[in-house]
Write a structure and sequence with these properties.
Length: about 270
């Protein structure tokens, strides 16, 4: 990604932060009580996912943290801070179709319903290669995996009176050059010599595909009272930000601490689906 695009993103971040502070003071006005609700947060062990899990738990929600790493310390932290003991961790590896199906089978068998599914887990531009399913790692973890998971959990979502699905997106989606003409050649690159341009292209493509997925799921699931949205959380200081490149760490690191993650949750109980 060019330096110009990165500076353009910085301007976007500053404008968004200013508007957020101006109109909301960085806080959500939602007072929704989520007692009796069950939510799944993928990648809920750290970063944005942990903040979302913490917020859901503070509203009384039962939270299932689905992650590839052990979430016990994060769960203890959430319970200590929210006094909500109804937090559990379950293993999922979005880089494995087999593991995604295993997770979904467990949920569908043991949970009466799922009220909220937040497809938050993702990887950045520094992870490349292919998965055991012979898919590009970034594309599978960021898009193919969440798409499959959502599809497999539709019956559990239907069991809720008003389920919500969130695909956590990124402004990077709108920098993607993906189109019907080039989709076959650039959507799932497997063997290539690593360079920054290709790495960012794959990340951008994965996030754009999530926007499309949210739109299609929204159309098809609306009749079942399942509300589907894609949400851009803005610039947030996470592990992905630190590992992106030196410009992100040095230039963006100074401002992203100012952003509030609770903005993501505005969409969960919104009346209008995308």
């Amino acid at each position: 990604m060019s330096v110009f695009i990165q500076y353009l993103y910085l301007v976007y971040c500053l404008v968004k932060w200013f508007l957020l502070r101006l109109f909301t003071n960085g806080r959500s006005d939602s007072v929704a009580c989520l007692e009796g609700k069950t939510a799944i947060v993928t990648g809920g062990n750290s970063g944005i996912g942990l903040a979302i899990s913490m917020l859901l738990a503070s509203r009384g929600c039962r939270v299932i943290i689905a992650d590839v790493v052990d979430a016990r310390k994060s769960i203890e932290n959430i319970i200590e801070r929210t006094k909500n003991k109804n937090i559990v961790g379950k293993y999922i590896n979005l880089a494995s179709i087999k593991e995604i199906r295993k997770f979904a089978d467990d949920i569908n068998k043991n949970e009466k319903k799922i009220d909220i599914l937040i497809n938050n887990a993702g990887i950045g531009t520094t992870t490349q290669g292919s998965t055991e399913d012979e898919l590009n790692t970034v594309m599978q973890v960021n898009y193919f995996g969440p798409f499959l998971l959502t599809h497999l959990l539709i019956d559990s979502l239907k069991s809720s009176d008003s389920a919500r699905v969130i695909f956590v997106g990124s402004i990077m989606a709108f920098m993607s050059k993906l189109s019907p003409d080039n989709m076959g050649t650039i959507l799932n690159l497997l063997d290539f010599e690593f360079n920054t341009s290709i790495a960012y292209m794959l990340y951008q493509n994965s996030k754009l595909c999530n926007v499309f997925a949210a739109q299609e799921f929204a159309k098809k699931l609306r009749k079942h009272k399942i509300n589907v949205n894609s949400s851009d959380p803005g610039a947030v200081l996470t592990y992905l930000t630190y590992t992106a490149n030196e410009l992100y760490e040095g230039l963006f690191g100074a401002i992203v601490r100012m952003f509030k993650i609770t903005n993501v949750m505005f969409h969960i109980y919104g009346e209008v689906s995308v």
